[in-house]
Structure formats: C-alpha cells, structure tokens
Amino acid sequence: MFLDPRSPVIEQYRSLRTHLLAESGNKSINTFLVTSSIRGEGKSITSCNLGIILAHNRQNSVLLVDGDMRIPSIHKIFGIRGNRGLVDYLKGESELDSLIVPTKIDNLFILPAGEPQTSPSELLATSKMTDFLRMEESKGKNHYVIIDSPPIISTTDPRIIATYVGGVLLVVQAGRTPRDVISHGLSLLKNVNILGIILNNISGISPYYPYRYSYAYGYVEYSK
C-alpha cells in the first residue's frame, strides 16, 4: 500500500529518508539496491514508498527500477504497462529513454523489468548494466536510483547488482523472518556496502528484535 499522507507510517519513511540522505551524502551515494532474504517481506512496496518519499523533495528526481526480472511487480503496483523495460535495454533491443515511464507523482519515474526471464543473471552481468548505472550516477547528487531486486537467498541476481550500486538496504519483516535466515542473507552480501536494515511490520516487541517500537517501519544501521 502506498503512503497515506495522514498515516503515522509516513513519518517513519521521512525518518528513513533522513538517515538515507545523510548516509548517502557523506559518501556521495545515489544508487541503492533494496532486497530481502526471502519473498514476502515487503521489499517491493518498501522500494515504491521510498521512491515516493524521496520524490516529495522537489529538488530530487527518482528512478525506480524493477530489477526483479523473474517475478516483476513494480508495474502492477503503479498500474502501468510492464511488457518492455530493463530486459529490453540489457538485450540491446531498445534505448533506455524509450523504456522509462513517468508516474502521477512529480519527480518519480519507473523503469519496468519487462517480460519475465528465467536466467536474468546473465543479462545483469553485462557491461550494459554498469553503463546504465554510471549514466544515472552522472546526473547529479539530487538524482536517485532505487532498484528493487529478487530476494538475496533464492537467486544470484541481487548479489550481482549489489556490486554495482552505492549501497544496499535489506528489508526484514519483523516477527516473521527467523534470525538465522537474516544472518544468511547478510552473509551473502559480504564485501558490499550495506547501509542498513529496514524493519517492516513492527508492532510492540518482536521476539526476534530486542527493541520496542510503536510504528510500522524502523531503520537499523548495519555495521559488519
């Protein structure tokens, strides 16, 4: 569900935005990967809402990329066409500009995944992906790229993308994802820049997390 301006959750996303911009500003980071350990933790909705809250700043422009070329969903969430996108660019079949779709939200644009693929890791490992991100990074400090990827444990795709971006955010559904699964997911992201863990669906005290929260989202800085 998208952010409701009247919801207390939006304040937590604003807090996340503040943390993220502070962290990225210190290290000149404007490309981010959002992933999770397993499916069903809310990474795609988190990616969308993060893109929306970043785009609320009129100085920013945001490109939300559906990097889950196995089971794409961003186009469905926004109700836009999804038959052409990142896949077509990586295959060299379309120019990037022709694939980017504007949204009803000012400053927010979407690059859909395109038709689902069975082996997208081969496409992600090409120079086209790195060229794409370098081009986006060159657009300045107020241009942000958020890539929603498949879960880290089930495929190699996010591990490939993680080596290209400035920072990684891991989404965890509080009270659902076992601690050993989270640890395994983090271990697969070694040698990349993990900016933090986004705790999703927090209510009261979770048996997995020794902190009390009174809101639906939380952000935990990660240090190896």
Automatic annotation (TrEMBL):
<dbReference type="InterPro" id="IPR033756">
    <property type="entry name" value="YlxH/NBP35"/>
</dbReference>
<dbReference type="GO" id="GO:0005524">
    <property type="term" value="F:ATP binding"/>
</dbReference>
<dbReference type="GO" id="GO:0005886">
    <property type="term" value="C:plasma membrane"/>
</dbReference>
<keyword id="KW-0547">Nucleotide-binding</keyword>
<dbReference type="InterPro" id="IPR005702">
    <property type="entry name" value="Wzc-like_C"/>
</dbReference>
<dbReference type="GO" id="GO:0004715">
    <property type="term" value="F:non-membrane spanning protein tyrosine kinase activity"/>
</dbReference>
<dbReference type="InterPro" id="IPR027417">
    <property type="entry name" value="P-loop_NTPase"/>
</dbReference>
<dbReference type="Pfam" id="PF10609">
    <property type="entry name" value="ParA"/>
</dbReference>
<dbReference type="InterPro" id="IPR050445">
    <property type="entry name" value="Bact_polysacc_biosynth/exp"/>
</dbReference>
<protein>
    <submittedName>
        <fullName>Uncharacterized protein</fullName>
    </submittedName>
</protein>
<keyword id="KW-0067">ATP-binding</keyword>
